[in-house]
Amino acid sequence: MTLSAPRPTSSVVARSSDVAEGGRYVVAVRDDLHIGLFRFRGRLYAYENTCPHQGGPVCQGRLVDGVRERLDAHRHSLGLAFDEDDPHIVCPWHGFEYRITTGEHPGAPRFRLRSFAVTEENGEISVAL
Ligand code: FES
Question: On the CB side of 28, how many CA atoms lie within 13 Å of its CA?
Protein backbone atom coordinates (compact mmCIF):
# COMPACT_ATOMS: atom_id res chain seq x y z
CA MET A 1 0.00 0.00 0.00
CA THR A 2 1.27 3.44 -0.91
CA LEU A 3 0.41 6.42 1.23
CA SER A 4 0.45 9.83 -0.35
CA ALA A 5 0.53 13.21 1.29
CA PRO A 6 -2.79 15.05 1.38
CA ARG A 7 -3.18 17.43 -1.54
CA PRO A 8 -3.41 21.09 -0.65
CA THR A 9 -6.81 22.64 -1.08
CA SER A 10 -7.19 26.02 -2.67
CA SER A 11 -9.12 28.64 -0.72
CA VAL A 12 -10.28 32.09 -1.77
CA VAL A 13 -8.72 34.52 0.70
CA ALA A 14 -9.10 37.97 -0.89
CA ARG A 15 -10.43 39.96 -3.79
CA SER A 16 -7.99 41.15 -6.43
CA SER A 17 -8.75 44.74 -5.47
CA ASP A 18 -7.53 44.07 -1.90
CA VAL A 19 -3.91 43.84 -3.06
CA ALA A 20 -2.73 46.94 -4.90
CA GLU A 21 0.37 46.93 -7.08
CA GLY A 22 3.36 47.34 -4.76
CA GLY A 23 1.18 46.73 -1.73
CA ARG A 24 0.19 44.04 0.70
CA TYR A 25 -2.88 42.60 2.38
CA VAL A 26 -2.83 40.46 5.50
CA VAL A 27 -5.72 38.07 6.02
CA ALA A 28 -6.67 35.61 8.78
CA VAL A 29 -7.24 32.33 6.96
CA ARG A 30 -7.77 30.40 10.20
CA ASP A 31 -7.35 31.23 13.88
CA ASP A 32 -3.81 29.85 13.70
CA LEU A 33 -2.86 31.01 10.21
CA HIS A 34 -2.55 34.56 8.92
CA ILE A 35 -1.19 35.12 5.42
CA GLY A 36 0.34 38.20 3.85
CA LEU A 37 -0.36 38.73 0.15
CA PHE A 38 2.00 40.94 -1.85
CA ARG A 39 1.79 42.18 -5.42
CA PHE A 40 5.01 43.19 -7.16
CA ARG A 41 5.07 44.00 -10.89
CA GLY A 42 1.77 42.23 -11.35
CA ARG A 43 2.76 38.99 -9.68
CA LEU A 44 1.29 37.79 -6.38
CA TYR A 45 3.23 36.27 -3.49
CA ALA A 46 1.79 34.72 -0.32
CA TYR A 47 3.66 34.16 2.96
CA GLU A 48 2.69 33.10 6.45
CA ASN A 49 2.60 36.11 8.75
CA THR A 50 5.07 34.50 11.14
CA CYS A 51 8.73 35.48 11.16
CA PRO A 52 11.13 32.52 11.20
CA HIS A 53 13.32 34.41 13.67
CA GLN A 54 11.03 34.56 16.74
CA GLY A 55 7.51 34.52 15.37
CA GLY A 56 6.84 38.22 14.82
CA PRO A 57 4.09 39.46 12.47
CA VAL A 58 6.53 39.89 9.61
CA CYS A 59 3.99 40.61 6.87
CA GLN A 60 2.82 43.71 8.73
CA GLY A 61 6.25 45.32 8.63
CA ARG A 62 7.52 48.11 6.40
CA LEU A 63 7.99 47.53 2.71
CA VAL A 64 11.35 48.89 1.58
CA ASP A 65 13.62 48.44 -1.40
CA GLY A 66 16.63 46.26 -0.66
CA VAL A 67 20.04 47.93 -0.40
CA ARG A 68 22.74 46.96 -2.86
CA GLU A 69 26.38 48.05 -3.07
CA ARG A 70 27.18 49.45 -6.50
CA LEU A 71 30.61 48.52 -7.92
CA ASP A 72 32.66 49.95 -10.75
CA ALA A 73 34.43 47.84 -13.40
CA HIS A 74 37.31 47.22 -10.95
CA ARG A 75 34.89 46.16 -8.21
CA HIS A 76 35.52 49.31 -6.19
CA SER A 77 32.57 50.51 -4.20
CA LEU A 78 30.50 53.33 -5.58
CA GLY A 79 28.38 53.36 -2.46
CA LEU A 80 25.05 51.91 -1.45
CA ALA A 81 21.80 52.35 -3.32
CA PHE A 82 18.24 51.18 -2.98
CA ASP A 83 17.35 48.47 -5.49
CA GLU A 84 13.80 48.90 -6.74
CA ASP A 85 14.01 45.44 -8.36
CA ASP A 86 14.37 43.79 -4.93
CA PRO A 87 11.60 44.85 -2.53
CA HIS A 88 11.84 43.62 1.06
CA ILE A 89 9.48 43.27 3.99
CA VAL A 90 11.00 44.25 7.34
CA CYS A 91 9.81 42.35 10.41
CA PRO A 92 8.58 44.88 12.99
CA TRP A 93 10.01 42.97 15.94
CA HIS A 94 13.78 42.89 15.27
CA GLY A 95 14.24 44.13 11.71
CA PHE A 96 14.97 40.94 9.83
CA GLU A 97 14.36 41.56 6.13
CA TYR A 98 12.96 39.14 3.60
CA ARG A 99 12.78 39.36 -0.18
CA ILE A 100 9.20 39.70 -1.39
CA THR A 101 10.00 37.68 -4.51
CA THR A 102 11.52 34.68 -2.71
CA GLY A 103 10.73 34.96 1.01
CA GLU A 104 14.43 34.61 1.73
CA HIS A 105 16.50 36.68 4.17
CA PRO A 106 19.14 38.28 1.89
CA GLY A 107 22.03 37.78 4.31
CA ALA A 108 21.03 34.51 5.97
CA PRO A 109 19.14 32.26 3.52
CA ARG A 110 18.39 29.73 6.24
CA PHE A 111 15.75 32.22 7.36
CA ARG A 112 12.94 31.93 4.84
CA LEU A 113 9.26 32.79 5.04
CA ARG A 114 6.78 29.95 4.60
CA SER A 115 5.26 30.47 1.18
CA PHE A 116 2.00 29.36 -0.39
CA ALA A 117 1.08 28.86 -4.03
CA VAL A 118 -1.22 31.69 -5.02
CA THR A 119 -3.56 32.11 -7.98
CA GLU A 120 -5.84 34.88 -9.17
CA GLU A 121 -8.94 34.36 -11.25
CA ASN A 122 -12.15 36.28 -11.87
CA GLY A 123 -11.23 38.95 -9.35
CA GLU A 124 -10.46 36.50 -6.55
CA ILE A 125 -7.16 35.47 -4.97
CA SER A 126 -6.73 31.90 -3.75
CA VAL A 127 -3.93 30.20 -1.86
CA ALA A 128 -3.15 26.48 -1.62
CA LEU A 129 -3.42 25.45 2.02
S1 FES B 1 10.72 37.99 15.11
FE2 FES B 1 11.04 38.88 13.18
S3 FES B 1 13.00 39.75 13.31
FE4 FES B 1 12.72 38.76 15.20
Answer: 3
- Percent above pLDDT 90 for the chain: 92
State which of 96, 110, 113 you would mutate to test the pocket of ligand 1, scoring each by most atoms of that ligand within 8 A of its C-beta.
Answer: 96
Residue 111, C-beta contacts closer than 8 angstroms, at least 6 positions apart:
52, 53, 96, 98, 104, 105
C-alpha 25 to ligand 1 mean position (Å) = 19
List residues near ligand 1 (CB under 6 A): 51, 53-56, 58, 91, 93-96
Element (H, E) at 47: strand 43-48
Does pLDDT of 14 surpass 90?
A: yes
With b meaning 16 or more CB within 10 Å and e meaning fewer, what string describes 14-39? beeebbeeeebbbbebeeeebbbbbb
CA gap 10, 78 in Å, rounded? 47
Average pLDDT over residues 46-66: 98
